[in-house]
Amino acid sequence: MSSNPSHHHDHSHNHHGCSAADVLAIRNTLSRYCEALDTKVFDLLDKVFTKDVVADYPFNADLKGVDAVREAIINRSVTPLQLAHINSPLPKNLPLI
């Protein structure tokens, strides 16, 4: 067994330090965000953002709190076609980044 740390391989994390579970959680959060916008079920944003989120959107900067983000998104006047996001299952064998 080598004592050289460069020969140690931890397969539970990719080269950015994210575990497979982390990557899945990020993918699920992004999917939930798209679902909230596409379906206009904006209460789903509570599962996307923390209550103390600070967000800057092109249509509204310096939003503080999930309620402010939700209201800004709801109040934005857009057509339904502009709210179409890709929300389909991801291929199972994508490499972890």
Number of strands: 2
Strand order, sheet with most strands: 1-2
Order of helices and strands: HEEH
Could you give a short account of the major beta sheet?
A: 2 strands, antiparallel
Low-confidence stretches: 6-10
Our estimate of the beta-strand percent is: 5-15%
Shape: globular
Number of H/I helices: 2
Structural class: alpha+beta
Mean pLDDT: 77
Please estimate the helix content: 25-40%
CA-based gyration radius? 18 Å
Distance, first to last CA: 28 Å
InterPro entries: NTF2-like_dom_sf, SnoaL-like
Protein name: SnoaL-like domain-containing protein
Domain SnoaL-like: 20-86
Pfam family, one: SnoaL_4
Description:
The structure is a single chain. This protein has 97 residues and is of the alpha+beta class. It contains two helices and two strands. It has a two-stranded antiparallel ribbon. A hairpin with a 2-residue loop joins strand 1 and strand 2 (60-64). The protein is globular and about 35 Å long. The model is unreliable at 6-10 (pLDDT under 50).
Give structural attributes.
97 residues; alpha+beta; two-stranded antiparallel sheet; 2 helices; globular; NTF2-like_dom_sf; SnoaL-like; SnoaL-like domain-containing protein
SSE diagram, text form:
Layout: H1 20-39, E1 54-57, E2 60-64, H2 66-75
Domain SnoaL-like: 20-86
Protein name: SnoaL-like domain-containing protein
InterPro entries: NTF2-like_dom_sf, SnoaL-like
